[in-house]
Specification:
By secondary structure, the protein is of the alpha+beta class. It has one domain. It is built from four helices and four strands; from the N terminus they run ββααβααβ. The chain has a four-stranded antiparallel sheet with strand order 3-1-2-4. A hairpin with a 5-residue loop joins β1 and β2. The chain starts with a strand and ends in a 5-residue tail after the last strand.
Length: about 90
């Protein structure tokens, strides 16, 4: 799996097998694509993604439990790891 970060129009960190799957997840759970998502999307390395995800807060405002972080990072499914707080 690869990790993709999008900053505009809303921030997201997504784990997916490829850029197209990450785009589909972004459109499904974050925002519509007005033709710019692929240009705004950057692949980031696993260590960076783990560090960013481990510092994110859950919707409740609490830290994400370590077990949940490891489960989502290791799974083979497409995952929206972080979403812009303005959308919660």
């Amino acid at each position: 799996m690869k990790f993709y970060e999008i900053h505009e129009p809303y921030y997201a960190l997504i784990k997916a097998g490829n850029k197209e799957k990450a785009r589909e997840e972004y459109i499904s759970k974050v925002a519509d694509d007005e033709g710019t998502v692929m240009q705004e999307m950057n692949e980031v390395d696993r260590d960076y993604a783990v560090a960013r995800f481990s510092r994110a807060k859950a919707e409740s405002g609490k830290d994400v439990p370590l077990e949940e972080i490891l489960k989502q990072i290791k799974s083979d499914s497409v995952e929206l790891l972080i979403i812009d707080g303005l959308l919660l």
